[in-house]
Amino acid sequence: IAPQVFSELGASVEVLAASPNGENINDQCGSTHPEMLRQKVLESSADMGIAFDGDGDRLLFVDDKGDIVDGDEILYIIAAHAQKNGGCSGVAGTLMTNFGLELAFKEMNIPFDRANVGDRYVIEMMKQNGWTLGGENSGHIICGDVTTTGDGVVAALQVLEALIIQGVSLRDARRGMTKLPQVMINVRHGGQFDMQNAQVLAAVKSAEQDLADTGRVLLRPSGTEPLVRVMVEGKDLSQVDRLAKDIAAQVESSLPK
């Protein structure tokens, strides 16, 4: 579907990995494996590449220099364009949305909030707040004024519309948002861990005070493995790395012996 849509709109399209056989879905291709697309963009001197996942509800872009444009940056481009043309009511992200997007929206006076990870939680928040845009950094983007769920082709068209109307390249359109360094450390436990452990919460509070309003801390249990995920974001990578290691060390020392 995607190649036909873009071709009919006047784009010169080269198609990759579009011959499904029932077993090769997402096999070293698409939004989960963009390396092939990146190489093709550079070889062809293309303006951009667009990668979808196997069922077409997620996407990411590759710009003309081969850099990946993920879901957070896609949300930024769509929301920034809407804000310049009538206003953006608000955007729903998730706990994993890069803090840089939150800062960019704050500067543009675009309301933003975080839902739990998962598109259904994003959609719920959009409905609750009366917003028409939301998504995840994985590239699952919901354009609620056009469709009711994530659709990669629809989201791609929203980005292309913004680029064409503004007369800018994909690389230029993403420059208003700066992704902040993020460090994630997974701490394995024996099957149970008290997420309200006083020492761990004290370490998190100390890190948040250290970051002030330039970053954030996320401490959450994995939903599929016996892991505690420690994530820290901020403007200074060395600071972020140090704080993440300090919290992870406190989590490890608090595990039952």
Describe this structure in a few short sentences.
This protein has 257 residues and is an alpha+beta fold. Helix content is 39%, strand content 19%. The longest helix is centred in the last third of the chain and has 17 residues, at 237-253.
Global Rg = 20 Å
Q: What separation lies between the terminal Cα atoms?
A: 56 Å
Distinct helical segment count = 9
The stretches of 5 or more residues where confidence is low (pLDDT under 50) are none
Determine the mean pLDDT. Answer: 94
Shape: globular
What percent of the residues sit in helical stretches (DSSP H or I)? 25-40%
Category from helices, strands and their pairing? alpha+beta
Task: Quote the beta fraction.
Answer: 15-25%
H/E element sequence? HHEEEHEHEHEEHHEHEEH
The biggest sheet amounts to:
4 strands, mixed
General description of the model:
The protein has 257 residues and is of the alpha+beta class. The chain has 9 helices and 10 strands. It has helices at 2-8, 35-44, 71-84, 99-107, 119-129, 152-166, 170-173, 198-211, 237-253; strands spanning 48-52, 59-63, 68-69, 91-94, 112-115, 133-135, 141-143, 182-188, 215-221, 227-234. The strands form 3 sheets. The chain has a 4-stranded mixed β-sheet, with helices on both faces. β6 (133-135) and β7 form a beta hairpin. α8 (198-211) runs antiparallel to α9 (237-253).
